[in-house]
Amino acid sequence: MTEFRFRGAVAPLRRPAAPALPRTVDGVVAALRPEEPLHCLRPAQVAATASAFLAAFPGTTMYAVKCNPEPGMLRALWAGGVRHFDCASAAEVRLVRSMFPDAAIHFMHPVKARSAIREAHAQHGVRDFVVDSAAELAKVLAETGNAADLGIIVRLALPKGEAVMDLSGKFGAEPAVAVELLRAARPVAARLGVSFHVGSQCLEPGAYARAIALAAQVIREAGVKVEVLDVGGGFPVAYPDILPPPLSAFMAAIRDAFQAAALPGVQLWAEPGRALVAGGASVVLQVQARRGGELFVNDGVYGALSDAGVPGFRFPVRLLRASGAASVPFAFQGPTCDSADRMAGPFLLPADVQEGDWIEVGQLGAYGGCLRTAFNGFDRAGMVDVIDPPLLDTPGYFMPAVAA
């Protein structure tokens, strides 16, 4: 008889067993001398950043779990005041409910497995579901037994924008379709809303204003009562070659556009991910070989540095030893046998970097842990909590300073 079993592809991040580790990155590396990637979480920074975002946004903030589902990060977000979570799968729903029995969970993926809808609703108390088609609305109603307490959020498609990662092509109902969905959902929804997503790492505050205006137009044309306007995520963070407008500019654009939309009785939601956790983790790599301006390191695009590959993100880096050499640009080669496992950077490091050195790569709290794969067997990594500030210091933008 054939045996059926589930298989997990990636080994979980492991906390080192060594007792009483130092509280700084340098101290931990000196103590452990790791030969596998080491993820360094900054929970105090994440909590402070979450608290600052919640205070700035004029509505309900839900964390986009897909950005970093590491339990240590989730606990830090909870400590910072986050009580609402945007989940995109049954596994994410399970994780959040197991950690926070009182959390409000919102299933914000526009296309869901029927079993995921049933489990989320019946076992985990999820009541809010996003849809972007009549078929998905029918699916949600069928799998929840036409429950009388559903929140239905209609995902609105947006024109292609200027975000670093455009999200306009995969999900969302065109305005005319969204109008019909709102009308169809109103009789069966205890709470009705409209959502959109301007794209990941959006650098233009005006993108939110235009999207709010379009959503308001759709709501007025539908002619039904709506309780929620969800502005999605996309709030940006700084990288070595990117300094976004301050968070206050995005909040002002949202406030002004929402006021101009004149939607009485409607509350705002947001789904930040990157903006809350990007500065909250770094990864320590070890150099395994140097060939001119190429450093062969023990992590890469199949691990924590996926965004440094084809997307071409540059991350802040530092050498974990003293050096008087001038900084020069390097590219990284990952540990796998795939020639595509290359990160062009450039990453500025002292010219005397060599095999055996450790390099810390910052701003990896967003997507650095969750995009890891098991390709070539390079799926092991460690994890520690540290008190270091983020590698990229941009207090004028958004990230609050945290006392050690």
From TrEMBL:
<feature type="modified residue" description="N6-(pyridoxal phosphate)lysine">
    <location>
        <position position="66"/>
    </location>
</feature>
<dbReference type="InterPro" id="IPR022657">
    <property type="entry name" value="De-COase2_CS"/>
</dbReference>
<dbReference type="GO" id="GO:0033387">
    <property type="term" value="P:putrescine biosynthetic process from arginine, via ornithine"/>
</dbReference>
<dbReference type="InterPro" id="IPR029066">
    <property type="entry name" value="PLP-binding_barrel"/>
</dbReference>
<feature type="active site" description="Proton donor">
    <location>
        <position position="337"/>
    </location>
</feature>
<feature type="domain" description="Orn/DAP/Arg decarboxylase 2 N-terminal">
    <location>
        <begin position="45"/>
        <end position="278"/>
    </location>
</feature>
<dbReference type="InterPro" id="IPR002433">
    <property type="entry name" value="Orn_de-COase"/>
</dbReference>
<dbReference type="InterPro" id="IPR009006">
    <property type="entry name" value="Ala_racemase/Decarboxylase_C"/>
</dbReference>
<comment type="similarity">
    <text>Belongs to the Orn/Lys/Arg decarboxylase class-II family.</text>
</comment>
<dbReference type="Pfam" id="PF00278">
    <property type="entry name" value="Orn_DAP_Arg_deC"/>
</dbReference>
<dbReference type="InterPro" id="IPR022643">
    <property type="entry name" value="De-COase2_C"/>
</dbReference>
<dbReference type="Pfam" id="PF02784">
    <property type="entry name" value="Orn_Arg_deC_N"/>
</dbReference>
<comment type="pathway">
    <text>Amine and polyamine biosynthesis; putrescine biosynthesis via L-ornithine pathway; putrescine from L-ornithine: step 1/1.</text>
</comment>
<protein>
    <recommendedName>
        <fullName>ornithine decarboxylase</fullName>
        <ecNumber>4.1.1.17</ecNumber>
    </recommendedName>
</protein>
<dbReference type="GO" id="GO:0004586">
    <property type="term" value="F:ornithine decarboxylase activity"/>
</dbReference>
<dbReference type="InterPro" id="IPR022653">
    <property type="entry name" value="De-COase2_pyr-phos_BS"/>
</dbReference>
<feature type="domain" description="Orn/DAP/Arg decarboxylase 2 C-terminal">
    <location>
        <begin position="287"/>
        <end position="365"/>
    </location>
</feature>
<dbReference type="GO" id="GO:0005737">
    <property type="term" value="C:cytoplasm"/>
</dbReference>
<dbReference type="InterPro" id="IPR000183">
    <property type="entry name" value="Orn/DAP/Arg_de-COase"/>
</dbReference>
<dbReference type="InterPro" id="IPR022644">
    <property type="entry name" value="De-COase2_N"/>
</dbReference>
<keyword id="KW-0456">Lyase</keyword>
<keyword id="KW-0663">Pyridoxal phosphate</keyword>
